[in-house]
Write a structure and sequence with these properties.
Pfam families: TctA (PF01970). With 510 residues, the protein is an all-alpha fold. The chain has one domain. It has 22 helices and two strands. A two-stranded antiparallel sheet has the order 1-2. A hairpin with a 6-residue loop joins strand 1 and strand 2. Helix 2 packs parallel to helix 4, helix 10 runs parallel beside helix 12 and helix 11 runs antiparallel to helix 12. The longest helix has 34 residues.
């Protein structure tokens, strides 16, 4: 009951015409950027982060809530109409959604994605409101050794589940940790990795890193693979669902929500796993009903379930982000950077230090989710026309706004040079298949991990036993060991298949 009263108080703060206006602007901007080819929610947030500077902190977070959900909706639009997922979590939506669009059911695919996103996002946000205070109360009791261990576990889990190669994941993580070391040592004041450059003494701003890696890197990558022929965009009518579509969609929406939220609430690397599990579950359930032949040719359940799982996971990620200060997705990393810009320290004490702000944020997430459905569903045909913008003009605009946004952070021309460096880095990690999330996570969590490590060692007088003097820390380290060793052992115990032998033969031929 207390949680409900606090949430109603958040609605009272959010329900002013100014805040509603910022939420609507955020939804429209997020969708506008997110619907463009190859741009996911993380890149949309990175590009639009400087737009919120100068706003009141409450208005900025409300606007970011709209941008967040708008970017999610835009990603599903490109997946369905162009078969071009803006992020890896939208891949499963693209499988059936694009087939539906090619069968002339683009409107139904967009509608089931939008309504499923609304239902999953609403349920997920309500679960965050009810579960996060309890987790925050327990997190206050966590000491520096356990906090360090949890962050280590988060990094290992995120790094090991993304991409086809764990080695590449850890390479991305170490690159991010190295970037996080740049600047003055917090304890000794000694310059690290600055090369004698005074502009690097304060470290590298996460906004410059994020915009460079996401926006500039994506633009360079697209330019290197630019197709001269125009994109084949499937026409969209007014999105709607018939009675049969409703009957086939509501259960996958709920099942996808149930699968997605736990994965988002745990520091386990985002929505890729639950969207895959949701797709597999819906396909198996369809086989029992004799509809398995529709999968691979445009089954509406294959859009409804994964899209709900994606958005429920996106809502669930606010639990570790706000209660523990752990960003488990690239989008969460950008949100954390935005909060840090306003001096908001995410973690166990956030619910007590900034209670009004957090409940207003949760209320604004529900408002933004509703506005997303009300405003954007009728505008789907208009958003589809944006996909016809020629790639050269599109990415020229992205480069301009990315440069303007990075410069506006500190108004320092040196940041533009850094932007080019991180843009080249973003291009390189895409070229060699290195996942971006571990890199960004390393930049964000690296300095905080160092701080908690030093706190734990200071208490123990420099003895390494200070890292394991809490029972929960020991349990977490066991989980870290299982996360690293478990897949290796299971891989050796699993019998080799014909696919493995063919893959090995191909590697030998290369």
């Amino acid at each position: 009951m207390e949680t409900l009263d606090l949430l109603l108080g958040g609605f009272a703060q959010a329900f002013t015409w100014q805040n509603l206006a910022f939420a609507a602007i955020g939804v429209l901007l997020g969708t506008f950027v997110g619907v463009l080819p190859g741009i996911g929610p993380a890149m949309a947030l990175a590009l639009l982060l400087p737009v919120t500077y100068g706003l009141d902190v409450t208005q900025a977070l409300i606007m970011f809530a709209g941008i967040y959900y708008g970017g999610m909706y835009g990603g599903s639009t490109t997946s369905i109409l162009l078969n071009t997922p803006g992020e890896s979590a939208s891949v499963m939506t693209a499988i059936e959604g694009n087939k539906m669009a090619k069968r002339g059911r683009a409107a139904q695919a967009l509608a089931t994605a939008a309504i499923g996103s609304f239902i999953a996002g609403t349920i997920g946000t309500l679960l965050v409101a009810f579960f996060m205070p309890t987790l925050a109360e327990q997190a206050v009791k966590i000491g520096a050794p356990t906090y360090f261990a949890i962050m280590l576990l988060s990094m290992v889990l995120v790094t090991s589940v993304l991409g086809a190669s764990k080695l590449r994941g850890f390479i991305g993580l170490f690159i991010g940790l190295t970037i996080g070391l740049v600047g003055l040592d917090q304890s000794t004041g000694q310059a690290r990795l600055t090369g004698g450059t005074l502009e690097l003494a304060d470290g590298i701003d996460i906004v410059v890193v994020a915009v460079g890696v996401f926006a500039i890197g994506e633009a360079l990558w697209t330019a290197a693979h630019l197709r001269r022929r125009p994109l084949d965009v499937i026409p969209v009518g007014r999105p709607f669902l018939g009675r049969e579509d409703w009957q086939r969609s509501w259960a996958p929406w709920l099942r996808g929500t149930a699968l997605g939220f736990p994965f988002g609430a745990l520091p386990a690397g985002g929505a890729e796993t639950p969207t895959f599990l949701s797709y597999i579950a819906e396909r198996r359930l369809a086989a029992r009903k004799g509809r398995d032949d529709e999968f691979g040719h445009g089954a509406i359940e294959g859009v409804a379930g994964p899209e709900a799982a994606n958005n429920a996971s996106a809502a669930g990620m606010f639990v570790p982000l706000l209660a523990l200060g752990l960003p488990v997705t690239a989008t969460a990393s950008i949100l954390l950077a935005a909060m840090q810009k306003y001096g908001i320290v995410a973690g166990p004490t956030l619910m007590t230090d900034q209670a009004d702000l957090i409940w207003t944020l949760l209320a604004s997430l529900l408002i933004g989710n509703t506005l997303l459905l009300v405003i954007n569903l009728p505008l789907a045909p208009i958003w589809a026309k944006l996909l016809r913008v020629p790639r050269p003009q599109l990415y020229a605009g992205i480069l301009f706004f990315a440069s303007l946004g990075a410069y506006s952070v500190n108004r320092d021309p040196f940041d533009l040079a850094l932007l080019l460096v991180f843009g080249a880095l973003g291009f390189a990690v895409r070229r060699f298949g290195i996942p971006v999330l571990p890199l960004i996570l390393g930049v964000i969590l690296g300095p905080l991990m160092e701080l908690k490590l030093r706190e734990a060692l200071d208490v123990s007088g420099g003895d390494l036993s200070g890292l394991v003097n809490e029972r929960l820390a020991i349990v977490v380290y066991v989980l870290v060991a299982l996360a690293v060793v478990g897949p290796i052992v299971l891989g050796r115990l699993r019998p080799r298949s014909a696919v493995d032998e063919v893959r090995d033969n191909q590697e030998v031929e290369r």
